[in-house]
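[Q] Does anyone have a clean structure-token version of this?
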Amino acid sequence: MAQKPSIPKGTRDFGPDEMIKRTYIFDTIKSVFRTYGFLPLETPAMENLSTLLGKYGDEGDKLLFKILNSGDFLSGVAPETLQDADANRNALSVKMCEKGLRYDLTVPFARYVVQHQNEISFPFRRYQIQPVLGIRGEDIKMDAQNMEINGENRLHAVITDTEVMGNENNLYFTFGGTQAVARVSKYEISQIGDRIDFVFMPSKMHFFDKETGVNYMEMQ
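[A] Here you go.
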């Protein structure tokens, strides 16, 4: 009996129903970013290892997926290095792999800014929603929703309502024509009408159906 096809551990498929919800969420995020002057950016799934290595610390470097060089990837490796592969693991890795899959979107963004610094205007606001790949303990379930600003890191809103919730406070405001709420520390004292500065942390954002209150993220 033929073996049933499968996908690599730590990855998943998204069927039509899930993709409709995800597309709606991502389109909403993108429209808000564009409203406030952010520009779309896309970088390759793989980068040169010289760009990636050393940016996440020694432990982080071990979590990168490295890509074997095309063709005879052992052609540049000296015989003595192969004889004691365990002792020469790092040397082997550099010789056999010149590229790796990005582990986040921050390092590729930094590389892009340096590489194209004479072509872009500062402050450079970008949004980028792309998958990232690395060896992680948890399931890789969501695309990296990464928004960063080079040279300016503040957005503005006016508080329309507040709610005290014990150890934290909820601040309500209108953002891009949509009612939003920020959950902040109980020590963050703000009043209706206050103008606040903030940045998005997409990994901590939740999207709810207005009618049912269902969390879209939990529906995946």
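[Q] Thanks! Anything notable?
[A] The radius of gyration is 22 Å.
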